[in-house]
Design brief:
The structure holds 2 protein chains of 2 kinds.
Chain A (H helix, E strand, L loop, with lengths): L3 H41 L2 E3 L5 E5 L2 H7 E3 L6 E3 L1 H33 L3 H12 L6 H12 L4 H8 L13 H25 L3 H9 L4 H12 L1 H16 L3 H6 L7 H9 L5 H26 L8
Chain B lengths: L7 E12 L6 E12 L3 E5 L6 H9 L6 E6 L2 E2 L10 E4 L11 H11 L4 H14 L15 H13 L5 E5 L7 H18 L2 E6 L2 H7 L2 E6 L2 E6 L1 H6 L4 H6 L4 E11 L2 E6 L4 E5 L9 E6 L4 E4 L5 E10 L3 E8 L5 E6 L13 E6 L4 E4 L2
Parallel strand pairs in B: 3-8, 3-9, 6-7, 7-8, 13-20
Antiparallel strand pairs in B: 1-2, 1-4, 4-5, 9-10, 11-12, 11-14, 12-13, 14-20, 15-19, 16-17, 16-19, 17-18
Helix pairs in contact in B: 2-3, 2-4, 3-4
Classes of the chains: A mainly alpha, B alpha+beta.
């Protein structure tokens, strides 16, 4: 006969074992599909490019130097890689703009949905998710169709006499921004909605009651309370924007590249896998730094003592 | 604060509120008029759905009346947004801002009014003292108990020195003992601040103990306005008598009447003296109300006779459930004494004596 203490101890041991057994698949996937490939990328970034792509197994820091510096072909001197730098800046700037604009458009949208009746809310959410049903590439080409020089928008502008010649929108940063806002808007609206749906609207009434105008209620009560949604939405939009590939490729043409396109270029036509790997890691670092900054300064809890 | 008890703080004139459209229209308030005096503890009392909270929300400005006027010191405020009314609310759920500290909550209204920082500081400190919460000023509102949240909600609403304070069932979430404490606390606050309180409750005991005057509401109408004594002792309608306190209702016919008094004949044939409101004629069939504590059990005689069906002991008093010979039920409440019980037992054949001034004729 086992004593009560022994039984309890065995139960605890079983419990711990079961927990490990149950979490092992998830941990295995994280290692195999997440951390493993990342380590391969790190490894490749320190190797020498092979002549036809691939890598030669020789240690080299050349790729990392190439991320930031470039050798002048004629004089052989090293200079800042301004082409890379401008692509970095464009990526960060466009992603930032996309995040801010989706926030500006998404906030009222989410507020509108959250203040509908329960049944109508479901309908609106359904409508918001409809774009996800179609392939991203197709949707991006559809945007191209709208904004190209002979497209819907320009035809209308010329026909109505607002402009005399088509406005060049396609293959500009504006086109990329428009495309990304369109693609990522639902990713902003959904977490915002999730936060607002939990918002106690009696607090809004309490704000009005205490002499807060609509604007003050928004800035002092609603925004602080839906901050988790704002943060989640911003992260969900900013990170994929930074690594966007399809949108800048289709709407920015070959000229207006973003980081994703630059990386792809190294693995494709550029045949410089180590440089591609180093660029990819640079992107990871930018994302991490941006996130840390965001969490530290923007998402920090409001400290108020009145 | 000018004390002019004769002046009306709030005057509600012919206010109706209709929710919904078309066939699903519901009149939450139906042509309600009432005057609330300055410096008064005024209670809106009624069952849920009677329109009392709607009336409060109209005064606060969260909803706007379909018809009628709401005057604050003579100015019509019915269509002003809530942030333009010198009226504050203590919400049933307290609605404290969870992202602010206790002090931050109390300061909020003052900040929105654009008061100077020093004044806000001083006022917040005074409010914290008033509700005895100084020690918890920097706590988050999620870190304090329900009773403490209640105090913060009060302090927050009182801080901007509103002309009128609205309280929407603020005690309903508290347990019995805390509720009793807060009832006394609220009376003290009202006395100390001199602010007109409009208090909404469905708890008749709360209304009776706290109010200067009570408006009893039912189905979107105000049935009676009066002091707790008036409402309890001189209910105008059967609903009022039934809703407030326990009541025994007896069918009767008026035999004779003179200057507010009447003699009525009960179904049992016994005759009884009763208070008579205006608008009744001799021979009218009426209902007479008798409060359980105004009646007395007797061995012989009595206006009502019957069998003692049940005896329920309540500590301070005992309730005797009598089944009258003419049907229905009649409850008599008698105070207990330590020396022994009244000596009545279940199944006894007894009478109920009703005193000279115990019965009141009601409008149905």
């Amino acid at each position: 006969m086992a004593s009560a203490a022994e039984i309890a101890e065995k139960a605890e041991r079983d419990d711990i074992r079961n927990r490990w057994l149950l979490t092992t698949p998830a941990i295995a996937i994280i290692f195999l599909a997440g951390i493993g490939p990342l380590l391969v990328v790190v490894l490749y970034s320190f190797l020498t490019p092979g002549p036809y792509g691939d890598v030669k197994w020789e240690f080299s820091t050349g790729a990392w130097v190439g991320v930031f510096l470039q050798r002048d072909i004629f004089e052989g001197t090293l200079g800042i890689a301004d082409a890379h730098l401008s692509i970095f800046l464009r990526s960060v700037w466009l992603s930032f703009a996309t995040t801010i604009l989706t926030l500006i458009f998404g906030f009222p949208t989410a507020y509108f949905i959250a203040t509908r009746s329960e049944k109508t809310q479901a309908l609106w959410l359904f409508l918001i998710t409809i774009p996800f049903w179609t392939n991203l590439l197709i949707r991006t080409f559809a945007v191209q169709e709208v904004i190209r020089n002979e497209g819907l928008l320009n035809s209308f502008l010329v026909w109505s006499g607002i402009v005399s010649a088509p406005v060049q929108i396609l293959y500009t940063d504006w086109a990329i921004a428009l495309g990304m806002i369109y693609v990522y808007l639902p990713l902003m609206v959904l977490p915002l909605y999730a936060s607002m749906e939990k918002l106690d609207f009696r607090l809004v009434e309490a704000g009005y009651d205490l002499y807060a105008t609509r604007f003050k209620v928004l800035t002092r009560i609603v925004i602080p309370l839906v901050k988790p949604g704002v943060i989640a939405g911003s992260i969900l939009v900013f990170i994929p924007s930074l690594g966007a590939y399809v949108t800048p490729r289709v709407l920015g043409g070959g000229k207006q590249m973003m980081l994703g396109n630059l990386i792809e270029l190294q693995f494709g036509a550029g045949r410089n896998w180590p440089l591609g790997a180093a660029l990819a890691l640079t992107l990871t670092v930018i994302v991490t730094v941006a996130l840390l900054f965001y969490v530290r300064y923007v998402a920090a809890p409001e400290r108020r003592n009145g | 604060m000018p004390e002019r008890p004769d002046r009306n703080a709030i005057e509600v004139r012919g206010v109706s509120k209709i929710f919904g459209t078309g066939e699903s229209q519901v009149a939450a308030l139906d042509d309600v008029s009432v005057s609330i005096r300055e410096n008064e503890f005024f209670t809106l009392l009624g069952p849920s759905g009677c329109g009392k909270t709607t009336l409060l929300r109209l005064i606060a400005g969260f909803d706007f009346p379909t018809n009628g006027q709401i005057l604050l010191h003579g100015d019509d405020i019915a269509l002003l947004p809530p942030y333009k009314r010198p009226v504050n609310t203590v919400f049933q759920s307290y609605a404290l801002f969870p992202h602010m500290t206790v002090a931050g909550n109390i300061a909020f209204g003052l900040e929105m009014l654009g008061k100077p920082k020093a004044e806000i500081e001083a006022r917040v400190a005074a409010m914290l003292k008033l509700v005895k919460m100084e020690a918890l000023r920097d706590r988050r509102t999620s870190q304090i108990s329900g009773g403490q949240q209640q105090r913060v909600a009060l302090a927050r609403a009182l801080a901007p020195q509103p002309k009128v304070l609205l309280l929407d069932e603020p005690l309903s979430a508290l347990d019995y003992k805390l509720r009793k404490e807060m009832q006394i606390e609220l009376k003290r606050l009202q006395h100390e601040t001199g602010i007109t309180f409009i208090f909404v409750t469905h708890d008749q005991e709360e209304a009776l103990t706290m109010s200067d005057r009570i408006a009893v509401m039912s189905a979107g109408k105000i049935l009676q306005v009066g002091s707790p004594r008036d409402i309890y002792d001189r209910p105008a309608e059967r609903f009022v008598a039934d809703f407030i306190g326990e009541s025994n209702f007896l069918d009767a016919a008026i035999v004779s009447s003179a200057s507010g008094r009447a003699t009525v004949r009960l179904a049992s044939g016994a005759e009884l003296a009763a208070t008579l409101p205006e608008g009744f004629q001799p021979k009218d069939r009426v209902t007479v109300v008798v409060r359980p504590e105004q009646a007395r059990l007797v061995r012989e005689g009595g206006a009502v006779t019957g069998i003692l069906e049940n005896v329920v002991y309540f500590g301070t008093d005992t309730h005797f459930h009598v089944r009258p010979d003419t049907g229905g039920e009649f409850i008599v409440r008698q105070q207990n004494s330590r020396s022994g019980d009244a000596g009545f037992a279940r199944g006894d054949r007894i009478g109920v004596a009703i005193g000279e001034d115990a019965a009141q004729v009601l409008k149905d």
